[in-house]
């Protein structure tokens, strides 16, 4: 399932209807935290959970799933042509540019991340699956419950299990990195 497209569709329908996360929570019985993770493509909702979300939004489940997998199997994305997505805007000023938003049934969601000077994430977040990072410019700091690790510009590459983590940078320019993550089904 294309988590980026599904999360964006759910968020778009919610906003289009003038609803907050709390409105959907009160109508669906789901938790705010979990629903936020769905909208930020951190978890894959089960079919019953999608049914609750659809009911709260006043649409059919088929509306949520419509066109999610009608994409080419091969996608070429030129620099700057990725889809900008809103993700974790309450705790982060990182700009996410999706590089595989048109590819169905992908196991990873690759992004280019751009951070405003001195910016990053105000709190560590977690998601299921694994992450891959390749620093493109500037020095990045990766923070987990266990350590803070600095990655030098243009050379660092890592793969790690996803636990509560955060990214930040003190660069004066607009530092960038590419990141990709996998997510497992839940709920």
Description:
The chain has 187 residues and is an alpha+beta fold. It has 2 domains: 3-65, 434 Repressor (Amino-terminal Domain); 83-181, Jelly Rolls (Sandwich). It is 25% helix and 23% strand. It has 5 helices and 9 strands. A 6-stranded antiparallel beta sheet has the order 1-2-3-9-4-7, with helices on one face. It has a 3-stranded antiparallel beta sheet with strand order 6-5-8, with no helix packed on it. Helix 2 packs across helix 4. The relative contact order is 0.17.
Secondary structure category: alpha+beta
Oligomeric status: single chain
The portion of residues forming beta strands comes to 15-25%
C-alpha termini separation: 15 Å
Label the overall shape.
Answer: globular
């Amino acid at each position: 399932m294309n988590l980026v497209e599904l999360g964006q569709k759910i968020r778009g329908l919610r906003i289009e209807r003038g609803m907050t996360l709390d409105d959907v929570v009160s109508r669906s019985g789901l938790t705010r935290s979990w629903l936020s993770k769905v909208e930020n493509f951190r978890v894959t909702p089960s079919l019953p959970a999608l049914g609750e979300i659809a009911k709260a939004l006043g649409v059919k489940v088929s509306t949520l799933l419509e066109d999610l997998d009608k994409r080419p199997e091969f996608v070429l994305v030129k620099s700057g042509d990725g889809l900008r997505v809103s993700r974790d805007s309450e705790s982060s000023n990182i700009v996410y540019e999706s590089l595989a938003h048109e590819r169905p049934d992908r196991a990873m969601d690759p992004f280019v991340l751009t951070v405003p000077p001195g910016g990053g994430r105000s709190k560590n977040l977690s998601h299921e699956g694994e992450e891959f990072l390749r620093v493109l410019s500037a020095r990045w700091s990766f923070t987990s419950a266990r350590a803070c690790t600095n990655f030098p510009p243009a050379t660092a590459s890592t793969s790690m299990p996803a636990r509560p983590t955060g990214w930040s940078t003190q660069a004066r320019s607009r530092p960038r990195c590419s990141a990709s993550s996998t997510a497992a089904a839940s709920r």
